[in-house]
Amino acid sequence: MVAEPGSDHLDWLAVPANVAQTGGLAGRKKDVNMICVTEETAIEMDVGEYIYISIHKTWADARAYCRQYYTEYSFVSSQSDHDSLLKAAGKNPLSGWIGLHRHADNSNIWMWSGGENVTYLNWDKGQPDNRDGVENAAQIWGNGKWNDCDEYSTMPFYCISVPNVEGKMSWEEALEHCRGTDRDLPSLLSEIQHLDAQEVIQLEDITDLVWIGLRFLNDRWLWMNGDSLVYEAWAQGDQDHLCPTQKRCGALSKTGLWKNWDCQDVLNFLCI
Ligand SMILES: [Ca+2]
């Protein structure tokens, strides 16, 4: 179903008022907590968000889950990354797998699941000890330090989600496409998330504007997953978005500013 031009009749988008008020993904993905990363992290790693998954899985099953529902297993390249990752579990660090495992042919070599270089380690005292010779994967303990552990143990785990640039569609088709793959058009809630998104859209063959999850409905701009609109990045002096008669969908430009744009226009877009 496609909304009539100029109308705000978008029932199929299904953003219940209670989700809009309580914010975030609470109604959609109950087992995740999401946080944004630091600026340093964003620049170093080009990372979106760390996500703590409370379901208990083996190391390999957790990897499959991260790849199916997010981007990758968590990887950590600095102390600030690590601080961000720990916060994904909430107030206190929680035990769980990260994407670090021993090389199949050389047990002295550790590798990240996504192939990133190992530039940072945070082993607890006396670890990794490879007890009984079966501890081939890394977990975070409740004290925030790492331990090598039997990869067939089951426990919660940490994933990472990075926005992907997708092919060209109208805004509503883009939203449908993201949701059809259990993702969403992104909310850019902070300057950091904003920098992340801006960085991934710089390639030459990507349109100058890309769709994000921003939509003018009921006389105000909203993030479509219900997040509150706290951080904003409209171009200075741009008045058109204040009361848009036609251009009621939000796009991010390569220069990092938001533009209100014609929803029917066909642009690249981000899914997260
Ligand atoms: Ca150990």
From TrEMBL:
Keywords noted in UniProt: Disulfide bond, Receptor
Say yes or no: keyword Disulfide bond present.
yes
Against InterPro entries, the record matches this protein to: C-type_lectin-like, C-type_lectin-like/link_sf, C-type_lectin_CS, CTDL_fold
Domain spans labelled C-type lectin:
50-160, 155-272
Membrane-spanning intervals of the chain: none
- What name does this protein carry? Macrophage mannose receptor 1
What organism does the record attribute this protein to? Channa argus (Northern snakehead)
The top of its lineage is: Eukaryota, Metazoa, Chordata, Craniata, Vertebrata
